[in-house]
Design brief:
Distance between the termini: 54 Å
Strand order of the largest sheet: 4-3-1-2-6-5-7-8
Strand content: 5-15%
Order of helices and strands: HHEHEEEHHHEHEHEEHHHEHEHEEHH
Number of strands: 12
Helix content: 40-55%
Radius of gyration: 27 Å
Length: 465
C-alpha cells in the first residue's frame, strides 16, 4: 500500500507539473500580444523551429501596424503647405544631425514632422542610454541644423525642434476665417485623442528600439560602418519601424531620406530600384548592398554589424520567471523518470553510470556539445544563437520534451543532473565543461557571447582536441 501511495503521489506530481508547464507556455504565447513580441507560427511538431527569435515575424508586423494605426494622421503623407520642395528650398537650413531613440515618444513626434515636411537628415545618431555616442547629446532628441550661410545651431527637446521645423519649412496657413471656428473645434478633439494615442506605439513595441543590444555592445569587436547607411523611410510605415528599431539596437548611424506619400523622393527611389518606390529601402555604401523588404534588411544588418543575432527579450523574461519555479521540480522529477524508485537500486545506479560515461565520451568528441529537446523554444533559440555566432557544435537530442512519452532518454537527463547539477535543457558544454543553458548557468550562453568569452573558450577547446 505504501508503494502504491508513493507511486500515486509521483504520478500526481508529474501530472501537476505538466499542467503547470502548459499554462506557463500559454502565458508565454499570449504575452507578445501585450508586449509587442511575437512567436513565429508553429509548424510540424517534429521539426525544430525557433519560435521566439528577434527577427521580425507576423505578430511583429501586426503590433507595428497597430502602432501606425494609432498615429494614422501623422508621419504618413507629405503636407501640401511645405517649403522644402519649392523654389526657395536652396535657402532653407539643412539638418546635419539628429540624436534619436526609436522607441521614444519625443523622438517619434520629431520623426513624424520630418516625414510630413519631406526632409532629409544627413546623420541619424542612435542615442540610447548605452549608445556609443550618447555622451555627445545633452538631450534626446537633439538636432543640429546648418543655415544657408553655414552657421550651425543646436536644438534640444521635441518642443524646440518642432517649433523650428514649423517656422522654417511650413508655408503659412491661409485658411478662411469663416472655416476656422469649425476646424478649431475638430482640432481640439483630435488633439485630446492624440495626447493618449501618442503613447500607444511605445506600449505595442515595448522593449524594442530603446537600447543597444548585447550583440552590438561596445565591449565586443563588432564591425562598424565607416560611412553612414542610407535609409528611405517614412515614420508611419510599420515595416520601416522594424528596420529603424534594429538600427537603433545595433547602434548604427544612418542618413534618413523621407519618402512619405506624395514625396518627390519616391521618384528618386523608383529610379534607383528600377520602378519600385517601396519603403523601407536600404543602401549600404560600405558594402555596395541595396535592398528592400524589412526582414531581408534586418537579417543583413545582424549578419554584417552584429556579433550574433540576439535571442528574444520576451523569452529571456519568461525564463527569468519560469526557471526558478521549475528548476527544483525538474531536479526532483529527473531521477524518478529515469527509474530511481525501482526495487533494484543497483540496476538503476549501474545504468546511470553508463549514461554518465556516454556523456563524458560525447562532450569529449567536439569542442562544443549541446543537449536539447526538439520542441523546446529555449533549445531551438540556443542552437540558432550558436549558428548566428558562427560557432560549430554537436547536438544531442534527448527527445521532444521532458514530459513522459516525449522524452527519449530520461537516464541521460538524470546523468546530466548528477554531472552539472542541472537537468534543464539546453545544457551546453565547451571543452568538456558545462557553461549552462541559454540564459542561466556559469556563465550561460548569452552571457558568454555578450561578454566576448565564448569564442576564446571555443578556440581553446579546439586546440586541446
Amino acid at each position: 500500500q505504501a508503494q502504491a501511495t508513493a507511486s500515486f503521489r509521483r504520478q500526481s506530481t508529474i501530472h501537476y507539473m505538466i499542467k503547470m508547464k502548459y499554462l506557463l507556455l500559454l502565458a508565454a504565447a499570449a504575452a507578445p500580444l501585450a508586449l509587442g513580441f511575437a512567436p513565429s507560427p508553429i509548424g510540424n511538431i517534429n521539426t525544430p523551429h525557433t519560435a521566439l527569435h528577434s527577427l521580425p515575424n507576423s505578430l511583429d508586423t501586426l503590433t507595428s501596424g497597430l502602432a501606425s494605426i494609432a498615429r494614422i494622421k501623422h508621419g504618413v503623407s507629405v503636407n501640401s503647405g511645405i517649403a522644402s520642395n519649392g523654389p526657395a528650398s536652396k535657402f532653407l537650413p539643412t539638418i546635419k544631425k539628429l540624436f534619436d531613440m526609436e522607441n521614444s515618444r519625443e523622438c517619434r513626434l520629431v520623426r513624424e514632422r520630418i516625414t510630413e515636411l519631406d526632409l532629409v537628415v544627413s546623420t541619424v545618431i542612435p542615442a540610447c542610454p548605452n549608445s556609443r555616442m550618447v555622451l555627445e547629446a545633452s538631450a534626446v532628441p537633439m538636432m543640429i541644423v546648418e543655415s544657408s550661410n553655414g552657421e550651425e545651431s543646436t536644438l534640444e527637446g521635441s518642443d524646440a525642434i518642432l517649433r523650428f521645423l514649423d517656422a522654417e519649412f511650413k508655408v503659412k496657413d491661409i485658411t478662411d476665417e469663416s472655416q476656422r471656428g469649425e476646424e478649431d473645434v475638430a482640432g481640439e478633439l483630435l488633439s485630446k485623442a492624440d495626447d493618449v494615442l501618442v503613447f500607444v506605439p511605445g506600449v505595442l513595441r515595448a522593449g524594442r528600439g530603446s537600447k543597444v543590444c548585447g550583440a552590438a555592445s561596445s565591449s565586443l569587436d563588432v564591425p562598424r560602418p565607416e560611412k553612414p547607411l542610407v535609409l528611405y523611410s517614412y515614420e508611419g510605415n510599420q515595416f520601416c519601424r522594424l528596420v529603424r528599431e534594429v538600427l537603433t539596437e545595433l547602434d548604427i548611424v544612418y542618413e534618413l531620406r523621407s519618402a512619405g506619400k506624395g514625396s518627390p523622393r519616391r521618384e528618386e527611389l523608383a529610379s534607383i530600384t528600377g520602378g519600385s518606390s517601396q519603403c523601407p529601402y536600404l543602401i549600404d555604401p560600405n558594402t555596395g548592398i541595396k535592398m528592400a523588404e524589412s526582414k531581408d534588411i534586418i537579417e543583413y544588418l545582424y549578419k554584417t554589424y552584429a556579433d550574433f543575432t540576439p535571442p528574444s527579450e520576451l523569452l529571456k523574461s519568461v525564463s527569468g520567471v519560469v526557471t526558478p519555479l521549475l528548476k527544483p521540480v525538474y531536479k526532483a522529477i529527473a531521477p524518478l523518470q529515469a527509474g530511481s524508485s525501482r526495487e533494484n537500486e543497483f540496476e538503476y545506479k549501474s545504468e546511470l553510470a553508463e549514461a554518465k560515461a556516454k556523456i563524458f565520451d560525447e562532450i569529449a568528441s567536439a569542442p562544443v556539445v549541446i543537449y536539447t529537446y526538439s520542441l523546446s523554444p529555449f533549445c531551438t533559440e540556443a542552437t540558432a544563437l550558436l549558428d548566428s555566432a558562427g560557432v560549430s557544435y554537436e547536438e544531442v537530442s534527448l527527445g521532444k520534451e521532458w514530459i513522459p512519452g516525449l522524452i527519449d532518454d530520461p537516464l541521460k537527463r538524470a546523468a546530466l543532473l548528477e554531472i552539472t547539477g542541472s537537468s534543464s535543457l539546453p545544457n551546453i558544454f565547451v571543452g568538456g565543461n558545462s557553461i549552462g543553458g541559454l540564459f542561466s548557468g556559469n556563465p550561460g550562453l548569452l552571457a558568454a557571447l555578450e561578454s566576448g568569452e565564448l569564442k576564446p573558450m571555443v578556440e581553446t577547446a579546439m586546440k586541446s582536441m
